[in-house]
Design brief:
Helix content is 23%, strand content 35%. The chain is an alpha+beta fold.
Length: 126
């Protein structure tokens, strides 16, 4: 299981890469592995204000449908339209081309709630 040290993680298995006040978000390697082959991604709406912990989209796999949760409070400023034609990018490159959205962080305190790689590893190892 890949858990890059330079990212932050939510308890709901989303990863966050911060660049200033913009957070790029996707699902972790652990989450994509548990889902199985992703066949459809319902992308969130660009421009939408979101609260940390709320559901904003769904990922459908051959096994199930899972909600994608917002890891930080802010406004969605970009979505990965590449997932429309190639949802499998979430499986093949979860930390790269498989990103789902970018959020302009409005509540910096919500970032402090995220875990570092070591804490996330402890979470998934039980």
């Amino acid at each position: 299981m890949k858990i890059p040290a330079n990212l932050l993680y939510s308890k709901d298995h989303e990863w966050v890469r911060l660049a200033g006040l913009v957070a790029r978000v996707g699902i972790t390697d652990y989450a994509q592995d548990a889902l199985g082959d992703v066949v459809f991604v319902q992308l969130p709406t660009s421009g939408q204000s979101v609260e940390a912990g709320s559901s904003c989209s769904e990922v459908e796999s051959t096994k199930s449908v899972s909600d994608i949760y917002v890891p930080v409070t802010g406004k969605i400023v970009a979505i990965n339209l590449g997932l429309t034609d190639a949802p499998g990018l979430i499986n093949s490159d979860p930390y790269g081309d498989g990103w789902i959205m970018e959020i302009e962080v409005k509540d910096v305190a919500s970032v402090a709630e995220l875990m570092d790689a070591s804490s996330y590893k402890q979470l998934i190892e039980g």
